[in-house]
Amino acid sequence: MTQTTVTSSTTTTSTTLSGLRSLYLIRVAFSLIWVALVVTTSASLVSTDKPTVIAAVLLVIYPLWDVIATLLERRMAGTGPTDRVGTTNMALGLAATAGMIIAVFSAIGSALLVFGIWALLSGAIQLVVAIRRRRTVGAQWPMVISGGLSVLAGASFAAMSASATSSLSTVAGYSAFGALWFLVSVIALSIRSRREKR
User: Fold this and answer.
1) Angle at the Cα of 65 (from 62 to 66), degrees rounded to 5?
2) If both were cysteines, with which of 51, 127, 158, 173 could 55 make a disulfide (CB 3.0 to 4.6 Å apart)?
3) What does pTM read for this prediction?
């Protein structure tokens, strides 16, 4: 009985590690594509400008993608409706998407404010998830750092939103750093997975 439980637990952890690595790689790819599109189409837009159609679509897609990624992560972990933190994160992402749809009809500064509030709150949620997951999955230090940086970046975006010099390039930088930390997390999870197999 004990051996079966241990084996089952090891298998579950291994599946979770593999699933997280795959999801994080998808998030890296999405972020890099998103950054490339922002840089090539709308990085020159500043706070007082009205977003172009492409910039508006990119700004709306970003928090919506986070909702989809959270849903995929929840299904992979098999937590479903019992995952209150995941549910909160998805609700926050949907609220940010709705807020962004309204903000993009105004100025870039309004969109930066919405983005900043969302980044701050979602970063706090990421911190909570990473700290909880550290006990069961391990190798969560990159996500702890990423969550903390997201909180700081979100507060910075919200503060900069009224400045005439802020632009969408700051948001692209945020996403690029996010991709970097997801990639570091993939490496950390891979190392952890190899250790588990030994």
Assistant:
1) 90
2) 51
3) 0.84
